[in-house]
Every structure is written in structure tokens, then in C-alpha cells.
């Protein structure tokens, strides 16, 4: 018991010391506050620190910082994770619960979560869950540890990972259950053996947060192992032209699609596009080329880094893009023939299920999944460094990233998303997530109703 008395005495002593410091400091705090308030209330506006508050109401701290970065280097700045702007999203839609007119599903029912990508492909891809990872590139974006964790985590739950505009790592293929390989504009990762290992191939035409603008990665941020794997020479700048050199005319896409289907013996081949006002025409070109799926990136999509003007002022918000894409496929009698994948600003199970109800076959996550992977590991960098230094390839703390911990965090995250979507399906009186459709939704405002063609609640 002596140790307990000693411990309690120590706590009491610490509290008394703290209270004494507060009492002694109180007069100084009071005098300082009085002096500061006097200055604040008497100085002219042009000499008053409150002028900054007034300015920040008109000009946000984010814009002020970004303009300061422009002033510092005189060049294009690159912001990670996508646009902070608030677009119309899925908040204006609500599910209509089953009660008496429609009875809820028995709680013991095994809710089906499977989704098929490329139903008319020779070898369709059947995923265990309808939530997958969007493309994140090794070296160009994230570290090898992150890529392996993504493959491992998605493999545990039967989801799919995506190599992005990097290359396929052997450990990544080993850990992944299903993997999307991208056919992109860069010179690397074009070997036949890479495509032969794919469960699906996504031809990267554009993406939401960077449209189809070119990108360059300087050699100082892409050195070491990634430089060698990507086949770059020492001091060489990695270039992503954003235009696939084989596509000189729209009809050239068909040749690429056919070649990839032959190489892979018929896995689903699709295109990834950012959503613009030419969305239907872009989709038409893809359909004529014989694609099995179309991945659409909305305006809220993320990226490792791209100019704010591209993130904030280009493309269509995700809910606009999805609604238009579904309408186009339905009008062309292609909805059940070509799978539709959508991404851009998905952070909750509710938004994912609403997208599926509107007509998406699968939803891909990026930023939300990356944050889930880092989970408590962010404590290794904050408050003095951002979490990106833990996951990005040139990050200072990338060696401290725990791959296994991240993999299981990602698996838990995806499982939790799926379980919440399943319980919502029960509440709607359905037995499969695929059965959730527009009839289960109601719009809260006229704009959301007009965009989605969902009736309002009034």
C-alpha cells in the first residue's frame, strides 16, 4: 500500500503546483489581456491586427497560403488530395426505410455483396465487395510499402487494388486477390508479362484531379529503387505525357482494347476518364472500341499533387457525372453490358451505397482509404510533418510505415464500409446490395432531384 500512498501524494502535489502557477500567473495574464484589448479597440484599422481577421473572411487562409507559395517560387504549385471546394454531392439524397408498405429484410439474411466487372468479357471479374481502390502509383506517387499494404488489405476482403500510373511490383501481385493494371501514357510498365498478370486493365485517359494535363517528376524526388524499376536513367525526369502516343485519333483506341484482350485472354478492359461536358461522347468512343467497363472520375477526386486550377475549376462534380453516365448507358441499352465504376469524393458507406443505387456497379476510394491505412501511424509524423511524408515515395518518414499494420487497417476499413452497406440494405427490404436502386431514394431539394432524376420528398 505504500506505493499507492506515494502515488496519490505525487498526484496531489502536482495538482497543487499547477494551481499555484495558475494563481501566480493570473495577474500577468489579466494585465496582458487588458493591454492587448486596449490596442485592439483603439488602433486604426490599417494598423490593427484585426485587419487580418477581416481579410481572412474575404480571402480564406488556404487561398492566402497558396498565393504565398506562388509568390515564393513563381511557378505552378501542386496541391495533394484534390479540391477543397464544396460541390453538390450526395447529401441531398436520403434512403426511404422499409417498414409496413415494404417490409424490412430478416436480420438473419445473408446479404449478397458481389459485383461483376465486365459481364460480357471472356473472363469477367467477380469482386466480393463493390468498393475498390483507385489507382495510386508506385514511385510516381506512393512508396512500395504502401502499394504492398494496399494489395494485402484489399486481398483480405476480396476487393481490388489498382497499380495506377506506376508499375506492378512482384510483392503487390503476390498479396492482391484482384488487381487492376493501368495502361497509361508513360514509357514504363508496358511489358506483356505485366498485363498478363492483370485481373482487369484500365486504360488511363484522364482523371478528375489532373484532367489530361502532362506531369513531370523531377529526379530528386524519384531516385533509388523506383528509378531503377521504372527504367529511368540517373538524373532523368519522369514524364507522364497525359496523351497515349498510340491514340492519334479516337478510333485508335479500339486497337489498344483488342490487343489487351488478346494478351490477357479476355479479362475486362476499360477506360478511365475525367468527367467533362463531353462525357457522353467520350463514353461513346469507348463503347465503340469495345470496352467492358468505364471508370469515371468526378471533380472531387484526389491525386498526389496537381495545380489548384485543375482541381478547382475543371470537370463535373461526381453526382452530375454519374447521373449523366447512367442515363447515357440506359438510353443506349448498354447498362447491363458495360460496367460503370465511379470515384471522386467518396468518404462514407452511405455515399457509396447511394452511388450504387443511382447505377454504379462499383465505387473506388482514394483519399479516404489512404487515411484509413495510416490510421494511428500518423502519430509518427504529426504535429511537425504532414502525414504525406509517411506514404509518399520521397517522404522523409516512409521507412517508418508499417506495412502489415496498414494492410489490416485497410481491410478493417473496407469490411466496415461493407457491413454498414449491408445493414442499410436490410433496412431497405432488399437481399443484395445490387438490388438497391433509385426507387429507394428521395431527394431533399430541387437541384439534386433535377440532376439525379429522383423525386423530391415534397
Question: Could you please describe the fold and organization of this structure?
Answer:
This protein has 458 residues and is α/β, with parallel strands linked by helices. It has 2 domains: 2-58; 93-452, TIM Barrel, CATH 3.20.20.70. The chain contains 16 helices and 14 strands. The radius of gyration is 26 Å and the shape is globular. The mean pLDDT is 90.
Draw up the topology in text.
Elements: H1 2-42, H2 50-58, H3 61-73, E1 93-95, E2 115-117, E3 125-127, E4 131-133, H4 144-157, E5 160-162, H5 170-175, E6 178-183, H6 192-196, E7 200-204, E8 215-217, H7 225-229, E9 238-240, H8 253-264, E10 269-274, H9 279-288, E11 293-297, H10 308-313, H11 318-331, E12 339-343, H12 349-358, E13 362-365, H13 367-374, H14 388-391, H15 403-427, E14 441-443, H16 446-452
Parallel strand pairs: 4-13, 5-6, 6-7, 7-10, 10-11, 11-12, 12-13
Antiparallel strand pairs: 1-14, 2-3, 8-9
Helix pairs in contact: 4-15, 12-15, 13-15
Compact summary:
This protein has 458 residues and is an alpha/beta fold. It is 41% helix and 12% strand.
Main attributes?
41% helix; single chain; TIM Barrel; alpha/beta; 458 residues; eight-stranded parallel beta sheet; 2 domains; two-stranded antiparallel ribbon
CATH fold title of the largest domain: TIM Barrel
Encode the helix/strand succession as letters: HHHEEEEHEHEHEEHEHEHEHHEHEHHHEH
- In round numbers, the mean pLDDT is 90
Specify the overall morphology. Answer: globular
Strand content: 5-15%
Order of strands in the sheet with the most strands?
4-13-12-11-10-7-6-5
Structural class: alpha/beta
Unreliable stretches, pLDDT < 50, 5 or more residues? none
**Which architecture of the largest domain does the CATH hierarchy give at level 2?**
Alpha-Beta Barrel
Termini separation (Å)?
69 Å
> What would CATH call the class of the largest domain?
Alpha Beta
Number of strands: 14
Secondary structure tally, helices:
16
Number of domains: 2
Whole-number radius of gyration? Answer: 26 Å
Give helix % range: 40-55%
CATH homologous superfamily designation of the largest domain: Aldolase class I
Biggest sheet features: 8 strands, parallel
